[in-house]
Fold this protein.
Amino acid sequence: MNSGHLILGELVDFITGETIEDNLDERYRQKLARLLVEKKDYNKNDIKSRCELPVSAGANRAVVKIDFLITLSDKICMIIKYSPGSLVTRHRPVLAGSRLVTPYQVPIAVATNGEDADILDGYTGEVISSGFESIPDKQQLAKRVVNMHFKHISSRRAEMESRIIYAFEIDGSCSL
């Protein structure tokens, strides 16, 4: 599938081992995957990559990609979404994603442009830290969520979050 990006050939996905399209955005994603495994101590089977998230706004439907879902003890505890551009404009879509990928609120949402990262509290939306070094490692994330109640997302809230991510990622994106 041609994503409108400069195609540089093919590469092997670090997490899945699949051969995928090589482009500049994918190189950032692969760098993140390596960071999660090699520096943040996640196992590859803790990470699900390139997840498709169906979204809608009224009758309009689309699929948005969430780059990484991090699962500990059978709960998605962190999502990471890469998008080029200003990080502050990426906060709202990643928060919406953290409220749609599962029926409960994902506690940690990471917005990254490949050069920097903002780590957000999924419940409050506040930036709790910045930089790749501050992405929680497996032990830190486990400690953070050990006694956490994973709050259910109401269908009304999910509908609104779907509209938000649709507006940012589909209506607000430029088509190449």
In short: The CA atoms of residues 55 and 141 lie 27 Å apart.
